[in-house]
# Entry
Amino acid sequence: MSGTDLHFRTRDNGAAVFRVETENRQRRLDLRQLAVINIRSGEIKPHGQQVPTETETAQMQAWIEARRATVLARERDDVERLIDQINFAAQWAQSRAEPADIDAVANRLLLAMHDLRSTLVKKQVDGLEKD
# Structure
């Protein structure tokens, strides 16, 4: 391992970045916090008195781009699974749900579906107006 190896501890909107250090007498790994990354803004904030090297900054910028792509792919995958779940819920309501089951979820599910429908229609209209 070289002094420019980084460890990214992911969190909601980015990561805490640590420099992995092995240059010590005990030959154990030391993690020294180097920076905090915000993937939404792309901001890299050095931690304390730490100063990232150009190589480390380039590694962090590459991580930001890769993480953004991962998050976007996961969001899309979540929506695809949601479509399946809506279809499963319709089948459940039609074939297996008892009246008490329907009473327990109907209002919340209908409101969530109405909210989703309204949002999708608005986005589609906005897209048509831009064209």
Q: What stands out?
A: The chain has two domains: 1-94, 97-131. The beta strands are 6-11, 14-21, 30-38, 44-46. The two ends are 52 Å apart (CA to CA).
